[in-house]
């Protein structure tokens, strides 16, 4: 009698009861950290300033390429405070002034002062600047305005500005281009008090030197000299004695001497006399060295000493391999120290580096240490030196180094004191993977021990439930919850909560994070993506799940495929790399001689569960991977029904292609693999002069749908239109979408299309007048939810489209359906006629959205939640029930029973629906949802600068007991009940006997 | 005798019987505990009439037994009306008991009519009536089940868990992934 209807009704009942009992998703305070974790990162460090003098905590302030500034604890690497500036707010310079202010220069025109202990913004000032010129911030040794705070000096293009250190007021401003007709490239403090030298370009071929009076900003003593060719402005090395620059054609090194007569003498030295093989990437390594310069080419680095009188360059040291040179550090009045970190030898797991600290003029070596770093850190690319005074009053040195994987490590006395995995701040793509299965053979003793522990833990929990526990015990219970040992095991669990998150970072490093607590299980700096001599560097683009063993290949390890794009200018255009997810090793790699524009993941897998992929190159040819005979045979059977499409955002077109025959290797100039020619089948031309494509969204390829029907409260049935080849395209008109206010709201339109990518058929089109982008959308099952801006109402709006297939409605009686005589399980073709019904509704929405996705569960039975990355870098979970086009103002009782909410004009947001609760995922870029094995639960991974992971259960956890369920209480209750039954039975027997004898 | 009516004692022996003197002197005295007043008056009626009487009485009783479900039916109807039309524990319990009672009654139909089994009495009609009434009760239960929406009488009940159809064609792609 268990008819589906009964089951459905019961499920519905539970869902309704669950929804009525608690509609919020909120956590209690003590649940934070049980399921979720949050990691804060800062990104690749480009500037670092130490604050180690004085009595306060020792710290280092860093600025990163991800536009974050942070103060780190020098002992542990923990973040004291951190600020993430806007996306375009690049930090160009960083200084600490007077031991208490952190000064930053952004984009050359914004100077900010932050309070060092707590990171509060003290002042911010805007100055005039020229974009695209060398710029810098210098803290002055003088106090111009007499407020006992040393002032600052900013050069930006030709504009020189002095700023008050106390409040950021502009003290004076000079335009050197206007008054003296020179473009200042670099300013250094002069040996004399209150003076500075500015070096710049004069005309096209000239260099010029000016002396700047820091008190008044007067420019004087203009000197200039003519050069034979143009100079490269990127690396200009200026000291108070000389300036060194490379010619823009990298032919020779130019030294401009500033002698005691304040004349400018130019000496040019051909690079070929210094380096035998200059290569293509010649550059000055560090531009803040005292006494020497460092010039690096592809394969070697030379340290050159500049003779201050003649300008002659003499070789001090020639270093081969990867070298990082720090800026010179002033230790005592006249003493400078500079660190050189050179790669020494490669170990199997660790690389050995030599850290050498050189004294004045590089003549003496103050300190030499060898440091071992894990090999997945790659070469050291940047070094920042800091000195400390040892107990015997001599100077010791520590170095902060940035690895090839963007990690930050502190080296001291040959040891790595701490390391921050800051490469994880720039995740490019992420993919889930299963952990290995648990092996048999758990010892009995372990289980018994566990049992005792388990009981003890549960008794404590019970005491906590009954309010009998002491505060100490409560703390112990909380600790036990947070540090569950099984949470971080490296094996699969029954509920499917333990998984690996395979993340690919911008630096070409792939890491596997454990979902239990976010620790890194393994890391690999993918060898085939690293730059090497004569080979390009590869930028990683995407990860694909290559092999997901689940049926007959269970003993195989899962494998992911990385696609990378080569730097331009090489014959090699891309690379593929296969990584074993359990071992963290590269299995194989291929260099591609063509650019891959798209990757099509087909639904076909071969006998070892490797998924067949088609790589589409820029000539629209499809390359089949894995390139084996077996996969070719499998694919040939399937080829007739395989298509691919392309969205050309530049031309506002969409094209669909079908596959033709295999290209004959002899004629097609194909060296290896199987390549198919393609044929254009259809094109959609959007009106290019008006509309421009903003958003293209497809369904997640791994989405599981439970059923194709939707049952209404009156027991009618709707068929969902579950076409896997559906794509949602949003265009905005007019085309110039950038300028707000350039066109009146009446002229703006947003048009959305639903397109079948096999046939190119536009299945539905909706036009929203007076709306504009940016559009964020989610396509799942048979619905689309999208977010855009309403210009009329000046509010954001969200719309939902639900697509139903009328042509599949059964025209047969119940008896025939009982006998299975229906056409509903017949495979559908995109070429068959469709009769669609699209229901639509729109709502106002409060927030700007950064990214959007939808939860995914193992079988697709559970209701869905939309996950929105808000502008506050939080993750908001909203029930799909809120986006239901069948909502009405006054739903009937039957509709209410079905779970339809009364219609409201805006989507209600309760503070409890934030999955990230009190955290912020700074710089949120992507959301990944992973089904757990437990149907009710979906795992959510949010990444940006920070990482955040949690679980969400859109229909509440209906298939397992909550983690704070007290088993001990249940056990005790059962035992007590059982005992009381026995006792009362005995008592009643006795009583009865006594009665009978009366 | 009076004391026996209270139910505390099941039997009684009157050792000093007042009726003893009225009985015929030829006959030996009645055994202890035997009371003539307790014998059935019908036994004294002549045999044929007795048999006829018995048959009609049995017929009557059989009809009574056959009509017993009517009361039940009314009772059930009232309970169902009280239970309402939404699915919850009470309404499901009522409905299933309404379905089960007729079934169990029909199973024990032989037992119900066993006491009235006789060569002379025809039990066919009462049995038919009994069956019909029980079937009606069951129909009521089924009707209730249907109003609760627990009977698979709609297309949705047969198609609600239908797996999504396979797509014949497959397409992939999108905008260029190049940086």
From TrEMBL, chain A:
Task: Using the record, list the residue span of the signal peptide; answer none if the entry has no such feature.
Answer: 1-26
Coiled coil spans: none
Record-annotated EMC1 first beta-propeller domain positions: 26-422
Predominant location: endoplasmic reticulum
**Which keywords annotate this record?**
Endoplasmic reticulum, Glycoprotein, Membrane, Signal, Transmembrane, Transmembrane helix
Give the bilayer topology.
Single-pass type I membrane protein
SUPFAM superfamilies with a match to the protein in the record: Quinoprotein alcohol dehydrogenase-like (SSF50998)
InterPro entries in the record: Beta-prop_EMC1_1st, EMC1, EMC1_C, Quinoprotein_ADH-like_sf, WD40/YVTN_repeat-like_dom_sf
What superkingdom heads the lineage? Eukaryota
Domain annotation ER membrane protein complex subunit 1 C-terminal: ranges: 780-997
Q: Where in the cell is it found?
A: Endoplasmic reticulum membrane
One GO cellular-component annotation of the UniProt record comes to:
EMC complex
TM annotation in the entry: 965-988
Give the family, as the similarity comment puts it. Answer: Belongs to the EMC1 family.
Assembly? Component of the ER membrane protein complex (EMC).
What name does UniProt use for this protein? Answer: ER membrane protein complex subunit 1
Automatic annotation (TrEMBL), chain B:
> Transmembrane residues, as ranges?
78-103, 123-143
Q: What is its main location?
A: endoplasmic reticulum
Entry keyword set: Endoplasmic reticulum, Membrane, Transmembrane, Transmembrane helix
Q: Where is the composition biased (Basic and acidic residues)?
A: 1-19, 49-58
Q: Which GO terms describe its cellular component?
A: EMC complex
Highest taxon, organism lineage: Eukaryota
How does the UniProt record describe the way this protein sits in the membrane? Multi-pass membrane protein
Location(s), subcellular: Endoplasmic reticulum membrane
Span list, region Disordered: 1-58
Q: Which family does it belong to?
A: Belongs to the EMC4 family.
The protein depicted here goes by the name ER membrane protein complex subunit 4
List the source organism.
Physcomitrium patens (Spreading-leaved earth moss)
């Amino acid at each position: 009698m268990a008819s589906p209807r009964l089951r459905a009704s019961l499920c519905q009942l539970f869902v309704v009861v669950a929804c009525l009992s608690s509609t919020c998703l909120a956590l209690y305070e003590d649940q934070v950290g049980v399921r979720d974790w949050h990691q804060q990162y800062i990104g690749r460090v480009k500037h670092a300033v130490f604050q180690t003098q004085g009595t306060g905590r020792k710290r280092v302030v860093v600025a990163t390429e991800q536009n974050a500034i942070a103060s780190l604890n020098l002992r542990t690497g923990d973040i004291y405070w951190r600020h993430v500036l806007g996306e375009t707010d690049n930090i160009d310079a960083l200084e600490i002034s007077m031991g208490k202010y952190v000064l930053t220069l952004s984009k050359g025109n914004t100077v900010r002062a932050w309070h060092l202990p707590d990171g509060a913004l003290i002042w911010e000032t805007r100055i005039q600047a020229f974009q695209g010129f060398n710029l810098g911030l210098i803290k002055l040794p003088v106090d111009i305005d007499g407020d006992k705070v040393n002032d600052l000096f900013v050069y930006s293009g030709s504009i020189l500005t002095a700023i008050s250190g106390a409040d950021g007021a502009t003290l004076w401003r000079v335009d050197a281009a206007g008054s003296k007709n020179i473009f200042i490239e670099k300013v250094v403090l002069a040996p004399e008090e209150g003076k500075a030298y500015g070096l710049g370009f004069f005309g096209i071929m000239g260099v010029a030197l000016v002396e700047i009076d820091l008190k008044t900003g007067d420019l004087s003593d203009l000197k200039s000299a003519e050069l034979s060719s143009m100079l490269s402005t990127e690396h200009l090395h200026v000291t108070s004695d000389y300036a060194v620059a490379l010619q823009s054609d990298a032919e020779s090194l130019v030294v401009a001497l500033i002698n005691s007569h304040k004349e400018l003498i130019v000496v040019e030295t051909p690079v070929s006399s210094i380096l035998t093989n200059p290569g293509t990437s010649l550059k000055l390594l560090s531009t803040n060295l005292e006494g020497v310069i460092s010039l690096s080419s592809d394969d070697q680095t030379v340290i050159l000493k500049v003779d201050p009188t003649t300008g002659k360059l003499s070789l001090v040291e020639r270093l081969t391999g990867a070298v990082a040179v720090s800026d010179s550090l002033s230790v005592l009045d006249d003493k400078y120290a500079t660190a050189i970190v050179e790669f020494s030898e490669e170990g199997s797991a660790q690389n050995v580096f030599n850290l050498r600290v050189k004294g004045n003029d590089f003549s003496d070596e103050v300190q030499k240490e060898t440091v071992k770093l894990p090999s997945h850190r790659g070469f050291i690319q940047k070094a920042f030196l800091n000195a400390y005074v040892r107990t015997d009053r001599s100077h010791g040195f520590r170095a902060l180094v940035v690895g090839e994987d963007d990690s930050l490590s502190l080296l001291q006395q040959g040891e790595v004191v701490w390391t921050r995995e800051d490469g994880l701040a720039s995740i490019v793509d992420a993919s889930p993977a299963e952990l290995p299965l648990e092996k048999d053979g758990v010892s009995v003793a372990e289980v018994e021990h566990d049992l005792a522990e388990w009981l003890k833990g549960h008794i404590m929990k019970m005491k906590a439930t009954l309010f009998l526990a002491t505060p100490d015990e409560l703390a112990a219970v909380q600790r036990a919850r947070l540090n569950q040992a099984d949470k971080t095991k490296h094996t699969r669990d029954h509920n499917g909560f333990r998984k690996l998150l395979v993340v690919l970072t911008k630096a070409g490093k792939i890491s596997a994070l454990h979902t239990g607590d976010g620790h890194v299980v393994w890391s690999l700096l993918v060898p085939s993506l690293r730059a090497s001599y004569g080979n390009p560097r590869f930028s990683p683009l995407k990860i694909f799940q290559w092999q997901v063993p689940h049926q007959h290949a269970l003993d195989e390890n899962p494998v992911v495929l990385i696609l990378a794009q080569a730097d331009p200018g090489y014959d090699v255009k891309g690379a593929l790399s296969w990584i074993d997810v359990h071992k963290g090793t590269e299995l194989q790699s291929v260099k591609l001689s063509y650019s891959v524009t798209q990757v099509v993941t087909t639904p076909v897998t071969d006998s070892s569960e490797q998924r067949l992929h088609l790589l589409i190159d820029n000539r629209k040819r499809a390359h089949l991977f894995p390139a084996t005979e077996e996969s070719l045979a499998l694919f040939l059977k399937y080829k007739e029904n395989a298509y691919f499409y392309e969205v050309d955002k530049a031309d506002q077109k969409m094209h669909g292609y079908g596959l033709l025959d295999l290209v004959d290797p002899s004629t097609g100039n194909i060296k290896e693999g199987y390549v198919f020619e393609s044929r254009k089948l259809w094109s959609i031309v959007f009106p290019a002069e008006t509309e421009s494509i903003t958003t293209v969204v497809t369904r997640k390829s791994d989405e599981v749908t439970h059923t194709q029907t939707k049952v209404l409260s009156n027991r009618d049935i709707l068929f969902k239109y579950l076409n896997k080849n559906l794509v949602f395209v949003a265009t905005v008109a007019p085309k110039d979408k950038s300028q707000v206010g350039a066109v009146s709201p009446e002229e703006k339109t947003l048009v959305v299309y639903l397109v079948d990518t096999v046939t190119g058929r536009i299945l539905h089109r909706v036009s929203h007048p007076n709306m504009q982008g940016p559009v964020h959308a989610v396509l799942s099952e048979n619905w689309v939810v999208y977010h855009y801006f309403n210009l009329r109402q000046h509010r954001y709006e969200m719309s939902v489209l639900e697509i139903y297939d009328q042509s599949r409605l059964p025209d047969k009686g119940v008896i025939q359906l009982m006998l299975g005589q229906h056409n509903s399980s017949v495979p559908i073709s995109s070429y068959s006629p469709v009769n669609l019904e699209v229901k639509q509704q729109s709502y106002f929405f409060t927030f700007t959205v950064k990214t959007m996705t939808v939860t995914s569960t193992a079988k697709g039975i559970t209701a869905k939640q939309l996950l929105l990355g808000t502008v506050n870098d939080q993750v908001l979970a909203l029930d799909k029930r809120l986006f239901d086009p069948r909502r009405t103002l006054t739903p009937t009782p039957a509709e209410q029973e079905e779970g339809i909410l009364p219609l409201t004009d805006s989507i209600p947001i309760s503070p409890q629906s934030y999955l990230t609760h009190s955290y912020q995922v700074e710089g949120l870029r992507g959301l990944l949802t992973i089904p757990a094995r437990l149907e009710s639960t979906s795992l959510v991974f949010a990444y940006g600068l920070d990482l955040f992971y949690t679980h969400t259960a859109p229909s509440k956890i209906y298939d397992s007991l909550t983690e704070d369920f007290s088993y001990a209480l249940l056990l005790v209750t059962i035992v007590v009940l059982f005992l009381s039954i026995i006792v009362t039975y005995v008592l009643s027997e006795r009583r009865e006997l006594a009665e009978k004898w009366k | 005798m009076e004391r026996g009516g209270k139910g505390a004692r099941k039997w009684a022996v009157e050792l000093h019987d007042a009726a003893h003197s009225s009985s015929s002197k030829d006959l030996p005295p009645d055994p202890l505990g035997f009371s003539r007043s307790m014998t059935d008056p019908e036994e004294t009626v002549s045999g044929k009439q007795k048999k006829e009487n018995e048959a009609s009485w049995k017929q009557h009783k059989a009809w009574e037994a056959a009509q017993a479900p009517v009361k039940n039916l009314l009772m059930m109807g009232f309970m169902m009306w009280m239970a309402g039309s939404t699915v919850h524990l009470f309404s499901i319990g009522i409905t299933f008991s309404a379905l089960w009672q007729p079934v169990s009654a029909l199973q024990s139909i032989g037992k119900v009519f066993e006491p009235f089994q006789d060569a002379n009495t025809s039990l066919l009609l009462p049995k038919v009536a009994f069956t019909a009434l029980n079937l009606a009760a069951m129909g009521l239960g089924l009707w209730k089940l249907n109003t609760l929406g627990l009977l698979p009488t709609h297309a949705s009940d047969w198609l609600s868990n239908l797996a999504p159809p396979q797509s014949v064609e497959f397409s992939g792609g999108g905008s260029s992934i190049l940086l």
